[in-house]
Design a protein that fits this description.
The structure holds 2 protein chains of 2 kinds. Chain A is mainly alpha-helical. Chain A has helices spanning about 1-5, 10-25, 35-55, 60-95. In chain A, helix 2 (about 10-25) runs parallel beside helix 4 (about 60-95). Chain B has 4 domains: about 25-95; about 105-215, hypothetical protein tt1634 (3-Layer(aba) Sandwich); about 220-335, hypothetical protein tt1634, CATH 3.40.1520.20; about 345-465, OmpA-like domain (60s Ribosomal Protein L30, Chain: A). By secondary structure, chain B is an alpha/beta fold.
C-alpha cells in the first residue's frame, strides 16, 4: 500500500485537491442535493466495490484500475470532508463576527 | 456530523472531473507501474536459482514462469515475488526442472574443439564447468551444449572439474559420466598422458568410480634422418631414459662416422619392449643407405631410402626383418641409388683414404669378425671399388702393440682377409683384391696411449694400379 501511495502520490493529491475544492463549494452551493435514498444505495454499491477490490476478484489491468479508482475516490472524499468542514468553520465565524 | 452528511449530498458535481482524473491516472501510470513491478520482481529473485525465468506484469498482477531446481526453491521464488513491493497477485507458472535418470555428462574432444554435452545440475555449476574447461583447455574452443536437470550425484562438480583436467591431456576422445560411473576413451596428447590420467582418476571424489578407461597412449616415435647434403644424422622423438639416450647417440656416432649427429631426442616413458635393440638394428640399416629416413613408431620400423648397390639393398631388407626383436614389424622401402660415374685409380685412392680417415673398420676384440657398426663404411668402400673396376686393391691389416707379436701378425692377416671376403660377398671379383697383414710392425702412432693404439688398429686400402 505504502508503495502505491508513494508511486501515485501526485494523482492522489490531485484527487484530494479536487475533493477539497468540491467540499469548499458544497457548503454554499444551492444546487439540488442527491436524495437520501440514492446516497444509501450508492454507499452500498461503494461497499460492494471495495469488497470486490479487497477480494482481488478483478484480474490484471482492470483490477489495478479499480484499486486506483477507489484510492482516488477515498482521497476525493477526504478532500471533500476537509473542504466542507473548513468552509463551514469560516462561514460560521464570519456570521458570528457579523 | 449532521452537517457533513448534508454537505456530502452536494459533492456529486465533483465526480465528473474526478472521473476524468481517474481515466488520466490510469492512462499515464499503468505502463510505468508495470515496468517497475517487473523490475521489483526481478530484484526479488536475484538470490534464487532458477532457469528460463519469465516475468510479465498486467496491472499489479505478476505472471511468473520459471524452472526451479528444488521444491523448496520453487516455493521460495514464488514467495519472493509475492513479497515484492506493489505486487498484488502472482500467477504461478513455475515448474521443477526435469530429473535426468541416468544423469549423463559428456566431454568430447576432437582436433578442433571440446564439446560439453549432457546435463549439469545448476546454472552455476554449468557456468563453472564451462569456465573450468576454458581454463584447462587454454586456447581450445569450448562448445557448451549442456542442459540442466535434477538428479546429479553428490560431488558432481568436483568430479567434472577433475575430469576436465584430464580432457586437457587427451588429443582426442570422450569422457562420459553416467551417474557415478566414469568411462574414458581416446588418445593421450603426450607420452605419459595415459599414465597421468590414470593417476589423476585415483583422486575422484568419493562415490565416483571408473567403469572403463580406454585411453590409449600416443605412438612412441623415434626418427632418424640421414641427409647426405648436410652430412648430418638428425635424431628426434623419444627414448626411454638418459642411459638409453646416451647409448643410442654413441651407437649412432659409431655407425655414422662421417655424419654430424644432431640430437633432438627427448626422454619419455612408454617405450615398447625391445626398443633399444630394435632402434640399434634399424640405425645399422640406415647407416648403409646413402640417404634415408627411419621412423620407429611403437613396434613398427619404417625404413626408406637408397642403398649404395643392389646386393646391399637385399641385405638391408632381409637383415632388418631378421634382427628385430619378436613382435616387431618392419616396412623397408629401400631402392638402389643410381650408380656413380667411374673414376680413375688416383681418385679411387683418394676416396678410399678419405673414408678410412673418417671412419674405421671395427672388429670384435681379438677376433677377425667385422663389427656390425662398420657396415655403412664398408658399403661406401664397396661403392668406391665399383667405381674403379680396373684397379687392383691391396687390403692391409695392422694391429696395435698389445699382446703377442705372432698372434697380432695372424690377427692382422685374418682381418684383412675378412674384409676381402666381405667385398667379394658384395659382388666384387676376388681377383682384384689381395691381402697382407703386418701385425704391429708398422705403427702410425705410439702404442703407449689408448688413442695411439686406436690409430694403429687399422685396415688400409692400397690401390696398386
Amino acid at each position: 500500500m505504502a508503495y502505491l501511495a508513494i508511486f501515485l502520490w501526485g494523482w492522489l493529491f490531485g484527487a484530494f485537491l479536487l475533493g477539497f475544492g468540491m467540499g469548499w463549494i458544497a457548503v454554499v452551493y444551492r444546487g439540488k442535493p442527491v436524495p437520501k435514498v440514492w446516497i444509501q444505495r450508492l454507499s452500498v454499491l461503494a461497499v460492494v466495490i471495495v469488497g470486490v477490490a479487497v477480494a482481488r476478484v478483478v484480474p490484471g489491468r482492470f483490477g489495478y484500475w479499480l484499486d486506483l479508482g477507489l484510492a482516488l475516490f477515498g482521497f476525493y472524499l477526504v478532500g471533500c470532508s476537509i473542504g466542507s468542514w473548513l468552509r463551514d468553520w469560516v462561514v460560521s465565524r464570519h456570521v458570528r463576527a457579523g | 456530523m449532521h452537517g457533513l452528511f448534508r454537505w456530502s449530498s452536494k459533492w456529486w458535481p465533483g465526480l465528473i472531473p474526478f472521473a476524468i482524473l481517474w481515466v488520466l491516472a490510469a492512462w499515464v501510470s499503468t505502463v510505468p507501474l508495470e515496468a517497475e513491478l517487473a523490475a521489483n520482481s526481478g530484484t526479488a529473485l536475484k538470490s534464487t536459482v532458477l532457469d528460463k525465468t519469465q516475468i510479465s506484469v498486467a496491472g499489479r498482477d505478476v505472471s511468473f514462469a520459471a524452472l526451479a531446481f528444488s521444491e523448496e526453491g520453487r516455493r521460495s521464488a514464488v514467495a519472493s515475488v509475492e513479497a515484492a513491493p506493489g505486487v498484488r497477485l502472482v500467477n504461478d507458472g513455475t515448474r521443477l526442472v526435469a530429473e535426468a535418470k541416468p544423469f549423463v555428462w559428456v566431454a568430447e574432444r576432437d582436433n578442433v574443439r571440446v564439446t560439453l554435452w549432457g546435463t549439469a545440475p545448476l546454472p552455476a555449476s554449468k557456468a563453472r564447468i564451462v569456465e573450468a574447461a576454458r581454463a584447462a583447455l587454454n586456447g581450445t574452443e569450448v562448445v557448451d551444449r549442456m542442459g540442466l536437470a535434477r538428479g546429479a550425484p553428490a560431488r558432481f562438480d568436483a568430479a567434472t572439474l577433475l575430469l576436465l583436467d584430464q580432457v586437457a591431456k587427451l588429443k582426442d576422445g570422450k569422457i562420459i559420466v553416467q551417474d557415478t560411473a566414469i568411462s574414458l576413451a581416446g588418445m593421450a596428447r603426450e607420452l605419459g598422458g595415459r599414465e597421468a590420467i590414470a593417476a589423476a582418476l585415483k583422486n575422484l571424489p568419493e562415490g565416483f568410480s571408473v567403469a572403463a578407461n580406454d585411453v590409449k597412449a600416443p605412438p612412441y616415435v623415434f626418427q632418424a634422418n640421414k641427409d647426405p647434403v648436410a652430412v648430418t644424422l638428425t635424431l628426434s622423438g623419444y627414448v626411454p631414459d638418459n642411459n638409453v639416450h646416451a647409448a643410442l647417440v654413441a651407437t649412432a656416432g659409431r655407425k655414422f662416422a662421417n655424419e654430424k649427429i644432431v640430437d633432438n631426442l627427448k626422454a619419455s616413458i612408454g617405450a615398447p619392449s625391445g626398443f633399444s635393440a630394435a632402434v640399434t638394428s634399424a640405425l645399422g640399416a640406415l647407416s648403409r643407405l646413402s640417404t634415408g629416413t627411419l621412423i620407429v613408431s611403437d613396434r613398427e620400423v619404417k625404413l626408406s631410402g637408397d642403398a649404395l648397390y643392389e646386393a646391399a639393398a637385399g641385405q638391408i631388407r632381409a637383415g632388418l626383418a631378421k634382427e628385430l626383436p619378436t613382435g616387431w614389424t618392419t616396412k623397408p622401402e629401400v631402392s638402389v641409388k643410381p650408380a656413380a660415374s667411374p673414376v680413375d685409380s688416383t681418385v679411387c685412392r683418394q676416396l678410399f683414404a678419405q673414408n678410412l680417415a673418417k671412419g674405421r673398420i671395427r672388429f670384435e676384440t681379438n677376433s677377425a669378425s667385422i663389427n656390425a657398426d662398420s657396415a655403412g663404411l664398408l658399403d661406401r668402400l664397396i661403392e668406391i671399388a665399383m667405381r674403379c673396376p680396373t684397379t687392383a686393391v691391396e687390403i692391409v691389416g695392422h694391429t696395435d702393440g698389445d699382446g703377442d707379436a705372432g698372434f697380432n701378425q695372424i690377427l692382422s692377416e685374418k682381418r684383412a682377409q675378412a674384409v676381402q671376403d666381405y667385398l667379394v660377398k658384395a659382388g666384387l671379383p676376388a681377383d682384384r683384391f689381395s691381402t697382407t697383414g703386418y701385425g704391429s710392425s708398422q705403427p702410425i702412432a705410439g702404442n703407449e696411449t689408448d688413442e695411439g693404439k686406436l690409430q694403429n688398429r687399422r685396415i688400409e686400402f692400397l690401390v696398386r694400379q
